[in-house]
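Let us practice reading a record.
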Amino acid sequence: MYAAATESLIKQAREIKEEELQRFCGRICKLLHTKDVSGDTVDSLQRLNLIVSATKYVRELPSDLVMKLQTVLRSSSCPEQLQVLSSSIIRDSFPPSVHSLCSDLSPDSRTFSHVASVVLAQAGNKEDVMPLCHHLLKSLESRLSDGQISRHTLPILSKMITVYPEILTDDQVNLVSRKLVDWLRYASMQQGASMSSGGFFSGSRTRQPAPLTEVDGVVMGNFFTVLCVGQSYTEDQWMNMYTFSMIKSWLLTYDTDGTTNTDSALLKKTQGIHSQHPDDRSEVDSSVMSMVSATSSSSRLLPPKERLREKAFEYCQRLIEQSDRKALKKADTELQKACIVESVSIMDIICGEDPSYVYRAFPCIKALYGRLHGDLTYARALLPIAQFYLNHSETAAVDSEAVFCQLFSHCPAEQFNDPMLAFEFVQFCLLNASVLQDRVPNYRQSFPNLLKFLAWNSSGLIAEFVELLPSLIAPDTAMELLHTILDLPCLAAALDLQQRSACYHASDRTTWDQQGAKVAACLDAFRQPLYRGLFLYILRPEAGTGDTIDRLKMLHEILDDMAESPRVVRCAQVVPVLLHVYFNTVTQKADEKMMNQMLLVLLERNSLLYNIKTFNVEVQKVFSTHLQALCRLRPPLIVDQSREILEFASSPANIYSKEDFYTHVVWVIGEYLSVSYDPRCTVELITSFFESLEAVLFEITQVRQSASPPSFSPRLITVLMTTLAKLATRSQDLIPRVSLCLSKMRTFARSAPVMACYSEEDTEEIITRAHELINLLKLPNVAQFVLAPSAGGDGPRWHRDTNASLPQGMRAVSGLLHRHSSFLPT
């Protein structure tokens, strides 16, 4: 959220009128014509920058102002603050300035970088940036002294190849590859020269270059890397750092086929010898060459791309060795972690391009894993290591089971509250979901741990888990996963209590009480041995201990005081989304047994949900939708689970606590309890369902003077009436009973309590439905045709072909209803 003053400024910038903007631009033009840069000029440019960047559409500026801003941008003598502002304004304004800026590119590195940012932002195709590319490559080809090397060259090049990877030819790729090798491997080993004062009476003097050190303070003994420490750096050392930062994207963009055997390797070396250009050799001074370890002649004979791969591999190995040193500064420790992540990722790419590197890389990676796997502060570094094992363990015949057991069991359980790790971990799973399913047995078993990331960071990870969830569904754990999704808010509450309990000692009652009375009570319960089993289950690291627990209601009562926690409420909001994904996935591949289990879970869990505001209602809506889908896919489910469904439907109490779900249960009974769907559907079974629903309808529609207004919707009444009529058509002995029941609906609908609660349209709907059903039941065969059409009744032919039986039947029924309109019950 912006501060009030900031929002006010943005609003003013968005609402400025065109006439006022033109006058303001004219004033800036006059200010830019003066030689001296005043504070008013800077303030005006800052305001104009806010105006052009605060709106979604591009502002059109006067052409003379744009030309003046271009002049400022290309002038190396202008203050950099003006160049930065000019660059930002031109980038977000109209008309585009790509062609005019590229016509005369400045040799000044700072000016060139600002111009390049505008060109890359406004370019519409590869041709627009081609002059920029040629200028960039020309500067690389020239033999520049250290003082002339532009630090901005590689960031611009990296951005360019990211947007337009095809912009470089093969020769140009080789040229850049050779330069990257030079900067990556042959940087100076001395610190850059720094100016220092020699005292009051002596002028400034230049210090002699001092050697660089490792992060632990030891003098550097090998080639320079980003983990070498110094007070100042030379230009080629800066280029070394820039090169390392872009080498990963370069290797991914310009991939080459690796050599897999000795013959092909020798062939490539021979080709490299005959085609080598005199300038292909590393362009470094002999003084620098003497400071680094000698390279093998075979490495120098490799083609440029492969030589870059070799030097990048050596560079990464050196970084991993340096990361084992004890850093003197905390910032260097964090840099070591980042370098480990980047180095392992680069080695993974190199091994993917050339499998021969796998055997050289694995000893280093295994040693690194052995050093890091027990240190939780390096949890993020384990992800690229796991990726390396996943990609190359089969090639090297290395067992990776221990790596993934550590990754999926410890990291989510102990680092779930690290948002960056959570995001990267889930991204790792998404990227490798299919491979993890096939090759990592404990991937699907670890979903209780993975869902801890979502429970703690629900709003930030919901999109990723919607995509990831299908890969976690396995036949043997599908039901447990469903229960776990339903218990996700409980998991969020338990994780919150676990974090608080670890921070506060039980003896420090003052600190506990500061959390609030409700939270303090939950913390007490969390530490009670009596409830330890409940929390151990909800916080379990892997699946397989049971689908759910018997004392789930007790857990809900213990955590009741946490139901209003913002984290718990946000977590509850993502559960319906996940449920839709779960059911849509499972119903595509579920067998008969799994569908029966899912139906039982729906009946059981609709009354066993964490009591969070609107949570129960939203979950029951999802249950209702997918109950219909399950029964549509497999209608015999009604007979398979007839005892449980009958028990649920015969209880009027379910109407008041879960009306929507109850209504859908009644509907599927009427729709699918038929011999046409299941030959096991006997007259006795139909009669038992009819009698139970008849008793429910009778109980909720009794008209008494003391009766309170109904708390259920008219829709429930109409669904109950229709279902009873459907069942009666399948056992025609029941028709008189249902007709008698329907004849009482007018009295119910016209009673005082009902009229006070329902609208006139609602009461008419009940009376009309009863009237139509009574008329239909007077002709049982017609009623059975209308209320229980055959399974193919939803096919197009039944509705489009006038010779089919359905259109004819509908015409007959329409006539019947009109002729017998006097049958309205009184």
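A brief commentary: The beta strands are 59-60, 93-94, 195-197, 204-206.
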